[in-house]
Design brief:
Blueprint lengths: L6 E8 L1 H9 L14 E2 L5 H16 L2 E9 H4 L5 E2 L6 E2 L2 E2 L3 H6 L1 E11 L7
Antiparallel strand pairs: 1-3, 2-6, 3-7, 4-5
């Protein structure tokens, strides 16, 4: 009898262009990084992802989305948690060249859990 894999929940704030690429990949993988993006940064908590999607992606991309997905915990052990600011600002730094392998360890589908748009004029 096999034990079910242990997974870790990760979050990814994203803009509409990246989200469209995820949709094109069947909600099962992240697209390759652009040349100026040497690292893929999933984050470890929802609040941090919300702040980035709401405060950065909306301003720069016109909309922000927070995605949630599960990754095989044993595989993630190769990526030390990086503290990118305060004690709750935690990320994993996945080198772009390792993203295809990372994608094979996603368990289930990537799902959108929050969407942010600019506030209406005068609001």
């Amino acid at each position: 009898m096999t034990r079910p894999r242990s997974t870790t929940t990760l979050w990814r704030p994203t803009g509409p262009k990246e989200l469209e690429l995820v949709r094109d990949l069947g909600w099962r993988a992240w697209p390759p990084r652009l040349p100026e993006q040497p690292i893929f940064y999933p984050v470890l908590n929802e609040d941090y992802a919300i702040r980035i999607a709401r405060d950065w992606n909306v301003r720069h991309d016109g909309a922000g989305f927070v995605t949630r997905f599960e990754v095989d915990t044993e595989f993630l052990a190769r990526y030390p948690v990086q503290q990118a600011g305060g004690r709750t600002i935690l990320e994993l730094w996945v080198p772009a060249e390792e993203l295809p392998e990372f994608n094979t360890h996603i368990v289930g589908r990537i799902e959108v859990v929050h969407e942010f748009r600019p506030a209406p004029e005068g609001a």
